[in-house]
Inverse folding.
């Protein structure tokens, strides 16, 4: 839904002009899910705790404000670094009962060449995304000072 992190536009902008329900779309998770009630987990940045390199694939406070998202007030969800930590939490009954996961399938391969290619490319992208995030924060602070 969110499009390229290098684009200035978010695909959510589309729904300000059109009603997705009229088009037969049952739900737009980023608009319809209450993230105070549903745990959100994504493999963005090739990691489960990739908030520092996530330009759009997140549901934090600023994104809530920007996108009109519901929920999150005072909610503290767990953080997982590895898939093994997620599996352990599920096995131990510590994983939230309600969750939404966004997964990028190309990251989950047994092909060693494809895996290394994805690793290298994603690490390069993460450097660029860290820069974009820092720049956006600087611009937001500048807007608040005016």
């Amino acid at each position: 839904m969110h499009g390229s992190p290098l684009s200035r536009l978010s695909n959510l902008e589309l729904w300000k002009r059109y009603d997705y329900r009229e088009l037969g779309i049952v739900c737009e998770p980023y608009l319809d899910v209450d993230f105070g009630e549903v745990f959100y987990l994504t493999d963005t940045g090739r990691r489960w705790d990739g908030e520092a390199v996530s330009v759009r694939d997140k549901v934090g406070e600023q994104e809530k404000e920007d996108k009109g998202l519901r929920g999150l007030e005072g909610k503290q969800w767990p953080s997982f670094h590895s898939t093994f930590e997620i599996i352990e939490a599920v096995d131990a009954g510590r994983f939230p009962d309600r969750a939404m996961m966004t997964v990028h399938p190309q990251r989950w391969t047994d092909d060693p060449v494809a895996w290394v290619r994805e690793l290298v490319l994603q690490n390069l992208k993460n450097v660029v995304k860290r820069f974009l995030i820092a720049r956006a924060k600087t611009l937001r602070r500048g807007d608040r000072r005016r």
Summary: The chain has five helices and two strands. The first helix runs from residue 14 to 17. The chain has one domain: 11-145.
